[in-house]
Specification:
222 residues, alpha+beta, 3 domains, 3-stranded antiparallel β-sheet
Length: 222
C-alpha cells in the first residue's frame, strides 16, 4: 500500500497528465464533495458528468475530494472503476434530472444541449414558451453556465469556462428568440403576433423573433 505522501504525489501526477473539460481538473467544489463523499471513499462517479470522477478520501475527521478527468474520448464507469470508451453507468441527463432533482432541489448541473443551458432542480414546471422541459433552464445572453460554480457568468478572455458547444449567436439562446414560423416567413420587420394597427412590431431573422420593438411615437402604428 502506498504511503500518504506517495498517494498525494500520484494524484498530482494525474492532475498534470489529464486535460480538463467541465469541472477543473485537480479540484472539486465543496458542495460536490459534501454531496458524494459523505458515505463513500475512493473513486466516485458524478452522475451528470462522465468525463471524469471524484476521488474521495479522508484525513482525520475531514472528508476531501479531488476531481480527475479521464483521458480524452473516455468515460468513467462506476462498475469497473475505470475510464472506458463506452461507460454503461453513464445515464441520460434527462433521467439524471428526474432521479436527483426531487431529492436535491437546489442542484444545478450542465445540459448536453448547449453550454448556455443547465438543469435547475428548483424548476418544477416546464416553460412551453421557450420549449424548456421540467428542470431545464437557460442562462441569459451572453452568459454561459459554469459547472464549477454552478452559476451563469460571462466567459472572459481567459476562457475559464470550458465549453464544447457554445451558442454561436444570440438567437441560439432559446429564451432570446422565439420561433414563430407563421409570422417570420422572411427576414425583416413584421407586426407583433396577435396585434392589429399597433405600434408594436418584431424583427425576424432565420425564422425567429430577434427583437420585440415599439414605434418611437405612441400615435404611430406599424
Amino acid at each position: 500500500m502506498l504511503s500518504p505522501r506517495w498517494t498525494l504525489l500520484f494524484l498530482l501526477m494525474l492532475m498534470l497528465l489529464t486535460v480538463g473539460e467541465t469541472l477543473k481538473n485537480g479540484h472539486a467544489p465543496r458542495w460536490l464533495v459534501n454531496l458524494f463523499c459523505k458515505r463513500s471513499s475512493g473513486l466516485t462517479q458524478v452522475p451528470w458528468d462522465c468525463t471524469g470522477y471524484l476521488h474521495c478520501y479522508t484525513q482525520g475527521m475531514t472528508t476531501y475530494g479531488v476531481w480527475l478527468n479521464c483521458p480524452a474520448s473516455l468515460k468513467f464507469d462506476a462498475t469497473s472503476q475505470n475510464c472506458l470508451r463506452v461507460s454503461p453507468s453513464c445515464m441520460n441527463m434527462d433521467r439524471v434530472a428526474h432521479r436527483y432533482c426531487p431529492i436535491y432541489s437546489q442542484l444545478r448541473f450542465p445540459h448536453p444541449g448547449s453550454c448556455a443551458m443547465f438543469y435547475d432542480c428548483s424548476r418544477k414546471m416546464p416553460d412551453k414558451r421557450y420549449g424548456l422541459k421540467i428542470y431545464e433552464n437557460e442562462c441569459a445572453y451572453p452568459t454561459l453556465f459554469d459547472p464549477e460554480l454552478a452559476v451563469c457568468r460571462e466567459n472572459e478572455m481567459s476562457n475559464e469556462i470550458s465549453c464544447m458547444n457554445p451558442p454561436s449567436s444570440r438567437c441560439d439562446y432559446k429564451t432570446e428568440c422565439l420561433s414563430v414560423s407563421s409570422q417570420c416567413l422572411q427576414d425583416g420587420y413584421s407586426p407583433k403576433p396577435g396585434t392589429i394597427f399597433s405600434s408594436y412590431h418584431i424583427l425576424c431573422k432565420a425564422g425567429k423573433i430577434v427583437s420585440n420593438l415599439q414605434c418611437k411615437l405612441s400615435e404611430e402604428v406599424f
